[in-house]
Amino acid sequence: NLSSIKRNIRNYRHRKFPDEPLNANFCLPEEWKTTMGAEPKTFLIFDNKQADSRILIFASNFALNILSCAEIWFMDGTFKCSTTIFQQLYVIRGKYKNQIFTCVYAFLPNKLKSTYITILQQVVINCLQTSNNPKPKYIVMDFEIGAISATKHVFGDSVQVKGCFFHLRQSVWRKIQHLGLSSVYKNNKNIRINCNMINALAFLPLNEVSRGMAYLYTIIPIELLLVAKYFDDIYVSGTSGTPMFSPNLWNVFNVTLNGGDRTNNYCEGWNNYFNKLVGTSNPSFWLVLQCIQQD
């Protein structure tokens, strides 16, 4: 049957690969450091060779040229294809001439700020080595403190970091699930409307967000009070005056008026495509790397 055929193909692929690394302290053969094709080109741009915190970054010169020209970057991690020896596969994409290009792939050992700083610094260094000076105006990403802090550390105030609106909505939905309100949400139209009103705070003018949050407290059903309090604590007012993710990070009022990108769903779409390309939930490192070379 089809599943057996796919399994046999995967087994055949595995037989061609080097032995699967047991940990991050392994040697990367030369043929895995380049692009595929008749004329292989440099693909591995950084390897810190630290067994306890190994970082591998891959990008072609063409991709770095594209990224340098892109005013909008999208950054996201995927965990399904990270393999057992790395925590995640992190990807940076650039929007150039209204097209999205996947430019950088990084195998990461953790989600620390220092790790993200290393990625971004190495990307900038390698772009400069190709005679390009990357100057993104916007970087859209998930709500991850380490990545956000690293981006501000590397680019300073020259780049506007924006949290993905899709992930903002997902955080509200996860809170609804955590509170056991999923069935109430699905069966009660008024509850759904009020949940959407929480999400819709992102579309208010930035200076109206706090007032909008205060207004929601006066009308929201009691079932959603803890959801509203969660959103207020994390995204609006904070528990001690400073929210974890301030409104200027996730507010999309101006972005929407200007026809900009509110989400990094390009990343989610690529993640789904790449997961299908890999074809297994527990991939070997070599299979994932081969798929990256083919992407």
Automatic annotation (TrEMBL):
UniProt domain MULE transposase: residue ranges: 72-170
Stored InterPro entries: MULE_transposase_dom
Transmembrane segments: none
Superkingdom as given in the UniProt entry: Eukaryota
PANTHER family associated with the record: MULE TRANSPOSASE DOMAIN-CONTAINING PROTEIN, PUTATIVE-RELATED
Protein name per Swiss-Prot or TrEMBL: MULE transposase domain-containing protein
Source organism of this protein record: Schizaphis graminum
